[in-house]
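Key result, reporting period 2: structure in, sequence out.
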């Protein structure tokens, strides 16, 4: 029995018909039309299937030996995974992020979380032709939102932000990475310069609290002290770069790590609607290798880290703190000013002091120490709960107050040996 069939056009019926292959009363033109239509339908179906294959992720988890890199092309952001990057698409978990077509959810208020669990996250603006802005949800550790849930991710892994760079006479574009919160543990935040002369500014901004690293802690069990070492989140800024890490209407807690800065780095927190926001805290486990300009700004800055401006690592650098400042660490410096820094002129630093603390009142806390090898310049008030040593003191304003508060003789600070009062 013949089981071969074909489609023909019947003039009598004015319609397509399926007939036995042996049927000869068929017009070739009709047959070709049907075949063409079938091919077109198959092509269309393949196109639909291809479009359906692309996925929009609500979160991605970057485990060890994986990286997700975002660049910018003419048609928008380009996402390139290295290794097997997985995440959530709608209700489907453990979906694999494909090298072509897949993306992160960027819908306002629904931005994808980037969870670090030993992997790396990179945003590269080196080839961008216009300002590049990437917005994600939680960056680092994904915080539990309901009782009984656990946080997701360790927060370990590297963040690399590469600047747009252009030729000397051209103007570079800026790179901004926004997040709803940042909690990063072991690893590095690297601000990388491009290959050309002029570098674009880079901003890492969070609308929620920023937590970097974990401080060393100790617990006492009878006569035994159990110490948990600090977890370092380091910050590296290449020469020629202008980089900012900011918490908007939130707080910035830098608990442990080393700031290696050869460019211009600003660490700041601002207060907008939340009265408890705007606090920048640098813990005792934070250290510095600053050969550039480091600015720390907030409604309040607690500088509990120690900073030695006379050391080889910092002697060519400059530190400026702008806020209601309190220090519980040790600041060692040749020259320091408590007041407003001298404005820059044509991009050149005019301020001669190594450190400027610009606050209405700077407080040296009980465990703090301000050790000035040469001159302490006072334009604003100073409250001393700890210790201040200065070879010389230059008081620049007639209403400057130095308040010494000590609970007992053991806590009494060493007085400044000399002071030059202003002429009035």
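The corresponding designed sequence is given below.
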């Amino acid at each position: 029995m013949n089981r071969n069939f074909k489609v023909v056009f019947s003039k009598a019926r004015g319609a397509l018909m399926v007939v036995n292959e042996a049927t000869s009363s068929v017009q070739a033109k009709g047959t070709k039309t049907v075949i063409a239509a079938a091919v077109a339908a198959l092509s269309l179906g393949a196109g639909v299937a291809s479009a359906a294959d692309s996925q929009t992720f609500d979160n991605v988890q970057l485990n060890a030996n994986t990286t997700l890199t975002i660049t910018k092309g003419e048609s928008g952001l380009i996402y390139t995974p290295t290794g097997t990057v997985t995440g959530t698409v709608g209700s489907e978990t453990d979906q694999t992020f494909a090298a072509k077509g897949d993306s992160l959810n960027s819908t306002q208020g629904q931005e994808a979380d980037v969870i670090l669990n030993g992997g790396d996250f990179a945003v590269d603006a080196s080839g961008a032709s216009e300002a590049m802005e990437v917005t994600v949800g939680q960056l680092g550790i994904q915080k539990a939102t309901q009782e009984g849930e656990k946080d997701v991710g360790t927060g370990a892994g590297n963040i690399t932000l590469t600047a747009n760079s252009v030729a000397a006479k051209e103007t570079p574009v800026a790179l901004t990475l926004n997040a709803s919160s940042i909690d990063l543990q072991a690893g590095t935040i690297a601000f990388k310069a491009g290959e050309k002369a002029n570098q674009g500014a880079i901003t890492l901004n969070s609308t929620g609290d920023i937590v970097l690293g974990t401080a060393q802690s100790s617990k006492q069990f009878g006569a035994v002290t159990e110490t948990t070492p600090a977890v370092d989140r380091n910050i590296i800024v290449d020469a020629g770069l202008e980089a900012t890490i900011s918490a908007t209407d939130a707080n910035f807690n830098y608990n442990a790590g080393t700031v290696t800065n050869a460019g211009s780095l600003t660490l700041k927190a601002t207060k907008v609607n939340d009265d408890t926001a705007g606090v920048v805290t640098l813990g005792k486990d934070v250290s510095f290798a600053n050969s550039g300009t480091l600015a720390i700004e907030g409604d309040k800055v607690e500088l509990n880290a120690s900073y030695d401006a006379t050391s080889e690592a910092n002697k060519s650098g400059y530190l400026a703190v702008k806020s209601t400042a309190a220090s519980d660490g040790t600041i060692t410096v040749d020259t320091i000013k408590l007041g407003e820094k001298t404005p820059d002129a044509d991009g050149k630093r005019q301020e001669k002091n190594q450190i400027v603390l610009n606050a209405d009142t700077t407080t040296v806390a009980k465990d703090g120490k301000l050790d000035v090898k040469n001159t302490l310049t006072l334009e604003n008030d100073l409250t001393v709960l700890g210790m201040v040593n200065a070879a010389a003191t230059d008081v620049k304003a007639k209403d400057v107050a130095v308040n010494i508060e000590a609970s007992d003789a053991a806590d009494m600070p060493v007085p400044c040996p000399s002071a030059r009062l202003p002429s009035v």
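The longest helix spans residues 28-53. The first strand starts at residue 5 and ends at 10. This case is discussed further under Risks and Mitigation.
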